[in-house]
Amino acid sequence: MISIERNLVTPRWQRVALPIVSLVMASIIAGIVLAVSGHDPIGTYQQIYAASFTADGALTATFIYATPLLFTGLGVAIAFRMHVWNIGGEGQLYMGAVGASGVGLLLGGWPLPILIVMMALGGALAGLAWALIPGLLRAYLRTNEILVSLMLNYVAGLFMYYLIYDSTSFWRDLTSPSALVFPQGKDLLPSSNWPGIVLGSFTLPFGFVLGAVLAALLLALFRFTRFGFEMRVMGDSPAAANYAGMRTRRTIVAVMALSGALAGLAGASQIGDFGHVLDPRGLEQAGYGYTGIVVAALAMYNPLAVVIVSILIGALTNAGFALQGPTFPIGLVGTMEGIILFSVLGGEFLGRYRIRFGRTPARAPSLDDEPGAEVAP
Amino acid sequence: MNADLIVSIAVSAIAYGTPLVLAGLGELLAERSGVLNLGVEGMMLMGAVTAFFVSQTLGGPGLAVLIAAIIAAALAGAALALIHAFLSITVRVNQIVSGLALTIFAGTIGLSSYAGQVWGVGGQHGVHQLVKLDVLGLSGVPIVGPILLNQDAFVYFSWALVALVTYYLFRTRFGLYLRAVGESPRSADAMGINVTRYRYVHTIIGGAFAGLGGAYFTLAIAPIWTDGLTAGDGWIAIALVIFAFWRPDLLVVGAYLFGALSSLGFTLQTHGVQLPSEFFSSLPYIMTVVVLAAASTTLARRRIGTPAALGVPYVREES
Q1: Residue A210 touches partner B, C-beta closer than 8 Å
Q2: Which of A6, B160, B242, B247 is the most buried (most CB within 10 A)?
Q3: Please, which residues 318-357 of chain A have a Cβ atom closer than 8 Å to chain B?
Q4: How far is CA A340 from CA A298, A351, B94, B228, in A?
Q5: Which of A345, A349, A352 to mutate to test the interface with B (most CBs of B within 10 A)?
Q6: Cβ of B296 and A143 within 8 Å?
Q7: Which residue of B has its CA nearest to A87?
């Protein structure tokens, strides 16, 4: 006799196998989409692989995309893990870029280590402040944080555009000849550039190292501190947290703030590591905040896994922009990301059940049974 | 304020509000059944590009082409909603993540953009557009004429749908069952209502409505396709369902208010008001936040409207 029953615990190997199987599944489905629309799947995958890893400078380019995704992925991972649905990473990143470039412009010429700290703080605090709006509304009025944080993405985007295109703000370049033709941001002094770690032809961005360190710290925060414990309980069972007298409001605000600060750091790294100028159009087209959701979900909300997954999704994003053209529609990137997410979600379900052969003893429901996915309104 | 200004605000409120009415009505049906679908933005975009593609490529009389385009858009939205329905109802994954996945999958840099490029409709100018009707030959009547009697057929269709959904929800047995499924699936199940079927049907119809809302962009508002042209309307539609306390009549009011707000910048600028365009563009988003916060205080006090089982998968075996 064959029966399907629920797994009491997810075996460790499944937590590793699931994302890998999801990626393979996603590649197959996306390959079918490619074939149906008249493209050559194998050739396209070869192109993606070359453009993200093996071609000249490809790996460096991949890390340019992986670095912001590492930060936004971490921000989403810690928020979603405790069922605080911050999808405002995009806007928090914009505000972080505004904050960090403001600080960088203001303090140009300061010693680099101090400047890096100040820019990172400027970015993180700006992102944090922006995330506090949905955080406080959620904690004190029970306002739906999904919609509020999302709406603020558009507002932050328009704010950036206002600073550069529609005002004579501190961020806008009003003097150089090219700026008279087309509005653009003020460049930071070259001495403000964050130093990358050069390994032969490959450059590891400073931001990526910072993000990896933060990932390890976040994991420690989760595992070993009281705050982390409270976050885990609240994520798994808000009712239990309430009964235990945990200060759920404060924890929600804190998680939102932390998540926003991480997204803000993505913005700071965009300025310090890569752009060195506030570029609304570039940031908006990149969409790192939204892609952070894909990274976090594929990493199953584990901070250390986010580090690895950010490289993979960074590779895909990089290939998308590098190959963009008639033979490689940019829409393919989002399509593949969506399919990856669907596969991860579907796979989670498979992981919850197992097939048993032979007679199955009747089993009383136990307290250890995993609760079904639950959602706050 | 002169009458011209009032009329032009009202006319553009209806134009920009119609996609919100349709998409919001769809989301309302899905949420009434207990399924939260955050994929509205993606479904609208897919509807918009599909409608545009069909209207550009199909030959024949304009009316037939437009009807085919609208049906195709509804089917595209429904097909996407089916993915979400399967994942959230059958597989019982987290509905928030599944809906977000749908929007990423079909959204601005997803399938809708891919389809637009493969179909090559990016730079084209629309051949067939919905035309304004002259109802009873009375469109010339001052104020009322241009607002109520000089709209395209799609607007009247959306009004009919609102009436139909209101009647369905509150005056039919199916509507009663639907609300039961959204409030207490276990009781509904005990009454012999097929919870799974109700949720599937209404999630898919919701997707079809979102597809229709998207079609209005490319068939009536502007005869072009660009990536991400809905610019967050799908999300505003979801927010509208909350402001409207899950009631179709209030949804229409909210949708037109937001329609007016979306077009306020244009309208005021043509009347000589000078403010940064970003300020006007951000108004609908800021208003959404403000109204959501206001609605949530009322909600918190009286807890009206929210379907109790919204977002919670129904598991029969584990009772």
Answers
A1: no
A2: B242
A3: 320, 326, 329-335, 337-339, 341-342, 345-346, 348-349
A4: 8, 16, 15, 21
A5: A345
A6: yes
A7: B100
Instruction: For residue B121, list chain A residues with Cβ-Cβ distance below 8 A.
Output: none
- Give how far B301 is from chain A: nearest CA, Å: 10
Q: State the CATH number of the domain containing residue A152.
A: 1.10.3470
* Farthest CA pair distance, chain B: 64
Q: Kind and range of the H or E element at A2? A: strand A2-6
pLDDT band at A232 (very low <50, low <70, confident <90, very high): confident
Nearest by CB to residue B109, choosing from A80, A150, A334, is A334
Question: Domain limits of chain B?
Answer: 18-230
Contact A345 B282 (CB under 8 A): no
pLDDT cut 90: percent of chain B above it: 59
Closest among B138, B48, B13, B34 to B85, alpha carbons compared? B34
CA distance B59 to B64: 9
| Average pLDDT, integer, range B125-154 | 79
Q: Helix or strand or coil: residue A185? A: strand
Q: What radius of gyration, in Å, describes the C-alpha atoms of chain B? A: 20
Report how far apart, in Å, the C-alpha atoms of B23 and of each of B29, B52, B286 are.
Answer: 10, 18, 20
Domain count, chain A: 1
Looking at the DSSP assignment, which residues form a beta bridge with residue B152? B132
Give the separation between CA A256 and CA A248, rounded to whole angstroms.
Answer: 12
Q: Taking CA A135 as the corner, what is the angle to CA A131 and CA A137, rounded to the nearest 5 degrees? A: 125
Q: Round to whole Å and give the CA distance between B280 and A321.
A: 31
Residue A17 lies in a domain: no
The answer to whether position A279 is within a domain reads yes
The C-alpha angle with vertex A259 and arms to A257 and A264, in degrees rounded to 5, equals 90
pLDDT at B318: 52
In a domain, A19, yes or no: no
Amino acid found at A41: P
Tell me which residue range forms the domain holding A129. 40-170+181-326
- Within 8 A of B96 by CB-CB distance, chain A residues are 85, 146, 375
Amino acid of residue A42: I
Report the interhelical angle of B111-118 vs B40-57 (nearest 10°): 10
B133 contact partners, CB below 8 Å, separation of at least 6: B139, B150, B151, B152, B153, B156
Q: 3-class DSSP state for residue A294?
A: helix
Residue A3 lies in a domain: no
Task: From chain A, pick out residues whose CB is under 8 angstroms from the CB of B299.
Answer: 142
Partner residue facing B105 (CB), from A80, A158, A339: A339
Note the pLDDT of residue A371: 46
pLDDT at A176: 84
Instruction: Quickly state the pLDDT bin for B174 (edges 50, 70, 90).
Output: very high
